[in-house]
Write a structure and sequence with these properties.
Layout (H helix, E strand, L loop, with lengths): L1 H17 L2 H4 L5 E5 L2 E5 L1 H6 L3 E5 L7 E5 L2 H7 L14 E7 L4 E5 L12 E4 L1 E2 L2 E2 L8 E4 L12 E8 L3
Parallel strand pairs: 1-11
Antiparallel strand pairs: 1-2, 3-4, 4-8, 5-6, 5-11, 7-10, 8-9
């Protein structure tokens, strides 16, 4: 009996160490990683960025108006260069991670206005109200997606990585 209790206590003591780094990030802001440099952007900093608006519909729900900075603007604030993508720079990709460790990938060109007019934002509000806790405080909204599978809820981290040689 005592040995099972000891194993249970040891397991519970280690669990917080096994939690993904994203799950440990503050819920107010997000962590940006570009070229190995990590920067934490607070919610206030994100709200001060130029805001964009996307009208979109999830599944068969009603159209909603989402507001937030573009993911490209957020990445530029974190040090990413999306304005002159060519050559090796086009081998970059962006990983967006949620509090529950759900992750999606975007090619860096999908986020650059030099390659597309489609808007991808880091929304903080919908229809004039802050996002519900189940979705926010930050949610990626992708204009024109047929399925909202890349509409990452509860975003805590965005990383720019390069495909290895």
């Amino acid at each position: 009996m005592h040995s099972r209790y000891a194993v249970l206590c040891a397991t519970l003591a280690v669990l917080p160490l096994a939690t993904p780094l994203a799950a440990q990030a503050p819920t107010d802001g997000i962590r940006i990683e570009v070229a190995g440099v990590v920067r934490q952007l607070s919610g206030a900093e994100l709200r001060r960025l130029v805001q964009d608006t996307v009208r979109a519909r999830a599944h068969d729900g009603p159209e909603q108006v989402f507001v937030g900075p573009s993911v490209a603007t957020v990445l530029a604030t974190g040090g990413a260069r999306l304005d002159s993508l060519r050559g090796r720079a086009l081998a970059q990709y962006v990983v967006v991670e949620a509090r529950d460790a759900y992750r999606v990938v975007f090619a860096v060109a999908e986020l650059s206005s030099a390659f597309t007019h489609r808007r991808i934002i880091l929304a903080h509000s919908s229809d004039g109200r802050p996002l519900e806790p189940v979705d926010g405080p930050w949610q990626v909204i992708v204009e024109g997606e047929l399925r909202p599978a890349r509409w990452v809820r509860q975003v805590v981290a965005i990383r720019v990585l390069t495909v290895p040689d």
